[in-house]
């Protein structure tokens, strides 16, 4: 009887172990990522910047998360066979190597990840001269996930794509004077005080929200201009629900006030104090999607858990109409954390 029971337990254990392995075997581990951006300089200038690994800390979408990452370079990092390596507490460790240069229109590289898991992928850059002063830059990567991590393949491709979008925009900022580009700072855990605000609620998809926000904040701005003595801070959006699968948002456009305001035409709400991780972005609002992505990426790297059911905030620290360039617009993102 005991022998039969032991056999049954072994069979159950094997089945439990086999099911996820069988599932993983049905998934594709290969992925390809490609992102592009036009940069307003000649192709040779872009080519030389990308070749120079020592320039990468200026625009790397990963090293900004850990500026103190330990970097090492080969003797000639801007030549074929040249490399640079990184080793950080949060960004992991690895090496990127130049394999081949094709005139000034293609760079082939190999990227080796050592931590958090080991893998090797191919990276290549394609530079297309659009005219005398504009170059289309394509950043590509192909590879495969280790067998036990195949369930992450789709997500990894999406994450790398967002990082490439960020890196290309930052590269444009380094190369093209006057170009729009984002810059990020990760400011740590803060206590956000309680606030009372006049609000305009919204529910709907992204495109509808963009229109609603333009109209809503215009109305709030008009109220603020006429009642400056009542305003206690900068306008903000409180996101109560965000569904990235259906691209659905439920939020409040808000203007903080010092006291109860009657007959304003807006709903008045109280937002409680809380513990948040603050990320700031300087740059056009067109980069806000990347800012939110980088904010959550930073939390994941730091192993800080967000509170999924709590509201998050987006504060507009200055007036876009009062700055000299969109790169001077400041937005602060507050993600609720445990």
Automatic annotation (TrEMBL):
The keyword Membrane applies. Coiled coil: none annotated. It comes from the Bacteria. Keywords: Membrane, Transmembrane, Transmembrane helix. Residues 186-338 form the AraC effector-binding domain. The keyword tRNA-binding does not apply. PANTHER family: TRANSCRIPTIONAL REGULATOR YGIV-RELATED (PTHR40055). This is AraC effector-binding domain-containing protein. It comes from Candidatus Thiodiazotropha endoloripes.
């Amino acid at each position: 009887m005991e022998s039969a029971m032991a056999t049954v337990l072994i069979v159950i254990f094997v089945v439990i172990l086999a099911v996820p392995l069988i599932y993983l075997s049905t998934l594709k581990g290969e992925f390809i990522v490609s992102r592009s951006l036009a940069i307003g300089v000649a192709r040779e200038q872009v080519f030389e910047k990308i070749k120079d690994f020592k320039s990468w800390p200026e625009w790397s979408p990963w090293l900004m998360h850990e500026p103190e990452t330990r970097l090492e370079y080969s003797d000639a990092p801007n030549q074929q066979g040249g490399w640079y390596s990184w080793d950080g507490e949060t960004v992991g460790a690895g090496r990127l190597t130049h394999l081949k240069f094709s005139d000034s229109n293609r760079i082939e590289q190999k990227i080796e990840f050592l931590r958090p898991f080991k893998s090797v992928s191919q990276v290549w850059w394609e530079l297309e001269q659009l005219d005398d002063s504009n170059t289309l830059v394509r950043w590509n990567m192909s590879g495969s996930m280790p067998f036990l991590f195949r369930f992450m393949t789709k997500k990894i491709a999406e994450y790398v794509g967002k990082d490439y979008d960020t890196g290309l925009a930052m590269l444009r900022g380094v190369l093209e004077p006057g170009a729009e580009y984002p810059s990020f700072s990760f400011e740590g855990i803060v206590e956000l005080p309680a606030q009372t605000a006049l609000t305009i609620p919204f529910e709907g998809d992204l495109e509808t929200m963009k229109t609603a926000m333009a109209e809503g904040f215009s109305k709030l701005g008009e109220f603020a201009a006429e009642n400056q003595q009542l305003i206690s801070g900068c306008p903000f959006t409180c996101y109560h629900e965000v569904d990235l699968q259906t691209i659905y948002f439920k939020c409040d456009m808000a203007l903080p006030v010092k006291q109860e305001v009657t007959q304003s035409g807006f709903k008045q709400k109280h937002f409680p104090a809380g513990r948040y991780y603050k990320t700031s972005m300087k740059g056009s609002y067109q980069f806000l999607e990347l800012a939110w992505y980088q904010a959550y990426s930073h939390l994941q790297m730091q192993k800080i858990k967000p509170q999924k059911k709590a509201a998050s905030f987006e504060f507009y620290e200055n007036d876009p109409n009062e700055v000299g360039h969109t790169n001077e617009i400041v937005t602060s993102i507050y993600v609720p954390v445990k």
